[in-house]
Amino acid sequence: MAVAPRNYRRHPARRVGEVGICWDGSAEARLALRTAVELAEMAEAELCLCTAVDSRGFLHPSYPGDYVPEVGGLMEAAQAVAAEALEQVPGHMPASLHVLVGDPAGVIADRAGAEGFDLLVAGSRGYGPVRRVLLGGMSDRLMRMAPCPVLIVPRGAGDAAREPESRDHAAVKS
Fold this sequence. Notes:
disordered C terminus
């Protein structure tokens, strides 16, 4: 799903030069990263990976280690996870990395504005309305806060892309 900010159509048309990616190391973020890399390659754009450490001491379950109460420890964990993301970016693609501190949706939306992202890509866990209220729903918040279009890659999108291939192999084996 892609969402553009209100009144975005008034922006002058231009070439996509920078694609941002929200990274937390989760399976959904990995799928979003693959999507962002493909889009950035097609547009010959730079990729900007953003990960955020919540200043309230929250550490995403995909980060290595246990809960670390001080932001410094969280920063180290986030930098380790972010370095893993950079390893997945093709060597020929210009890419940068930003480890931010604060409310994740807020600081990533702020970075998107400061860097002039042309597109921001994020994964979605697909929690549904009740769990989203309890657990946050960062992609929903990003769609409302980001100054650029946001592409949300839903959980399982990679499975749907592989499905026709599975059918092709089944037909060949028959």
